[in-house]
């Protein structure tokens, strides 16, 4: 969906539904309770005790106040599926570990920028081959790093001329001893583990996602994708040109971001409230739109299709918003 169309639709939706752009001063306690009841219905919540119901209602009201103070030009923030989550619960969802990255200087990639001409927009979801898989949902496990890693490997594998195959997040979650399972990890560490140990990365069907770290299962067959080459880089000083080149030349990218403010995201382009102080979440950039009134990156998240624009989020290009250019990775076959 074109982001401009989505912004219009999201704005209309927010103005006529329980996901209104919020202004605390005009909502009475009765109105807040009515909104909370609508939230329970919309997101199929089932609180087992009166105490839990009251606790979640108080959490909902606290989050409601934060949302009201966050809305500004650009993105729209409102009630979504995280509206009854505590700060601690949301932090557990963010599972990226920051690791040092090397800045690429005078590499073939950077050298090619002087002569290469790239399109004003790119969306790998629209490629004639199947390059980008469906949005997945990590649940409450902080293993975004594993999703970002396997999705980027799967895209590169398909770009190399192979059939697109969903790969196993669970294998990394349970077997990768360089990362921390649901307590966090990174693209760099995961790829390092795969390459150093020459571990065949299995398919999702062979080792399906459980939403928790489990016993590492080593299958008798030695089938799977062997990763031999990966790259990590810091593009903070050349964000737009370098990431555009990397996307065009290597396919979708794994990135680390500060997703603290994404908690209440409903739609639009994030331009503010996202400074990138702590890179606490890993996602995948699948495209960009340079010729839009506000140029933006197209980002695939792993919080399910009921988040943002069917699982996607849009970030302003060129200002390192959310720290998007500080830890960028890709693989090649």
UniProtKB/TrEMBL annotation:
The keyword Disulfide bond applies. Pfam families: Inhibitor_I29, Peptidase_C1. Residues 118-330 form the Peptidase C1A papain C-terminal domain. One of its GO terms (molecular function) is cysteine-type endopeptidase activity. Residues 1-23 form the signal peptide. Gene3D superfamilies: Cysteine proteinases (3.90.70.10). Residues 36-90 form the Cathepsin propeptide inhibitor domain. Keywords: Disulfide bond, Hydrolase, Protease, Signal, Thiol protease, Zymogen. GO terms for cellular component: extracellular space; lysosome. It comes from the Eukaryota. GO terms for biological process: proteolysis involved in protein catabolic process. Belongs to the peptidase C1 family. This is Cathepsin O. It comes from Trichoplax adhaerens.
């Amino acid at each position: 969906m074109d982001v401009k169309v989505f912004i219009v639709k999201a704005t209309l939706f927010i103005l006529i539904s329980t996901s209104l752009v919020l202004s605390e001063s005009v909502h009475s306690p009765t109105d807040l309770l009515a909104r909370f009841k609508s939230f329970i219905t919309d997101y199929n919540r089932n609180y087992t005790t009166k105490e839990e119901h009251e606790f979640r209602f108080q959490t909902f009201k606290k989050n409601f106040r934060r949302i009201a103070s966050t809305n500004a030009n650009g993105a729209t923030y409102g009630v979504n599926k995280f509206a009854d989550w505590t700060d601690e619960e949301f932090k557990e969802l963010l599972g990226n570990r920051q690791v040092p990255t090397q800045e690429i200087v005078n590499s073939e990639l950077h050298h090619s920028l002087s002569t290469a001409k790239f399109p004003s927009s790119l969306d790998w979801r629209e490629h004639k081959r199947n390059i980008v898989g469906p949005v997945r949902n990590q649940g409450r496990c902080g293993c975004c790093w594993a999703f970002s890693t396997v999705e980027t490997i799967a895209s590169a594998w398909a770009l190399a001329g192979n059939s697109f195959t969903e790969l196993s997040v669970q294998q990394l979650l349970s077997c990768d001893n360089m990362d921390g399972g649901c307590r966090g990890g990174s693209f760099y560490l995961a790829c390092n583990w795969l390459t150093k140990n020459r571990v065949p990365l299995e398919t999702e069907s062979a080792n399906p996602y459980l939403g928790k770290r489990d016993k590492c299962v080593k299958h008798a067959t030695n089938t799977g994708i062997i990763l031999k080459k990966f790259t990590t880089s810091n593009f903070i000083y050349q964000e737009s040109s370098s990431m555009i080149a990397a996307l065009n030349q290597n396919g979708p990218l794994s990135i680390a971001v500060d997703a603290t403010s994404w908690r209440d995201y409903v739609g639009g382009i994030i331009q503010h409230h996202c400074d990138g102080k702590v890179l606490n979440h890993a996602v995948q950039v699948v495209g960009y739109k340079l010729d839009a009134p506000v140029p933006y990156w197209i980002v695939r998240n792993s919080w399910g299709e009921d988040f943002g624009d069917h699982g996607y989020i849009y970030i302003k290009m060129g200002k390192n918003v959310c720290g998007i250019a500080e830890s960028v990775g890709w693989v090649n076959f």
